[in-house]
TrEMBL record:
Keywords: Glycosidase, Hydrolase. The keyword Nuclease does not apply. Coiled coil: none annotated. Belongs to the glycosyl hydrolase 5 (cellulase A) family. The keyword Hydrolase applies. This is Glycoside hydrolase family 5 domain-containing protein. Residues 113-354 form the Glycoside hydrolase family domain.
Amino acid sequence: MPMQKKVFMTSLAGLVILFLTGCIWLAPVAISSAQKVQAMSPTPPKSGVQNPPLTAPYSVNGNQIIDRYGHPYLFHGISLDGLEYDCQGPADLDRQHLAYLGAGRNTSTETYWEANTVRLPLSEGFWLNGSKRAQCTARHYQTVVKRVVAILTALRFNVILDLHWVDAGGQSTEGGGPWPMPDVDSLIFWTQLASLYKHAPNVLFEAYNEPHPLSWSCWAANCSKLTDTVSSNDCQCKKTLSYPGIGLSTIVRAIRATGANNLVLIAGMNWGFDLSQLEHYPFETTNLIYDTHPYPYADKQASSWDTAFGQFSERYALISAENGQYDCGSNYMDQLLTYLDARHISWIGWAWVPGGNQACTYPRLVKDARGTPASAMGWSIYRHLHSLSY
């Protein structure tokens, strides 16, 4: 999501380091076949209501996502905020708390949301280098990510691995920030992730969260120099940095070079929102889903949706992998979900991060880790997920 509404969340990560120590430094290494098996080993589901069985592998045919049985499929779910700014990982990433995102029997203290997909925002800096400030190694972060993916897979979720923050060529450390485009480290990150999960067809790859370079040519291809000012997690302040940008077509080629044929998400310009020039910059590969991130800013209102992305829903498979509302209301999201559903566009709501009654300043879906919906938007998405049949 746009950084101006998110930067304060990074301060939460600092609280964790007072309690967690003992990690060992690990330089980035290739992922072994033994790790692949460990990453995807499911545990038997508990008795009771469960998510429907996964219908992966998926493929793209025209404007449709097709499941293993040849049926059209839509991803509907929730973004699990935290792993992009917290190397140790937020609390409540255990099986019971993750289960609340899916099917289950509600109680007076537990609420299940009926999502079929969970999106995990990640940091390439943590994956490759860990965090000195949090005394967290790359190995520890990788272990956390792999454990969460394994739990979600055992719970029968689809999982979107989202490259959310980059490090601007090593200049923005401690997780990095939302720089305009991927960098050279992103190629290492995706080579390792794609190699690890290329045999996990329920895992999708979101090439980069919210691109916002100055030109479409830079969006698609490499840029010799990108300069931008954004909030960086190392100083929790704004930095102005320049670095060579890596285009999304290069990221896709790196993923495919591993042999991975997983679905890949490609977000548009203007912080992931704008796909209007899509046909001028084709990607030479299959199994792509184009991604839009609507938020209620002046240039992202309903009057712009047709031009920005809706016009392509009859030609390309589309998803809104991030969206939300900041004002305790739900009018924007109610209109958006109706629009997306009418065009058979998949969607993922932002964001599952417990926050009490703070949903008026940040688009939180839940009040607590047990799934209690927060604000009008939280209740709206909760009800909408329950209205869908899988």
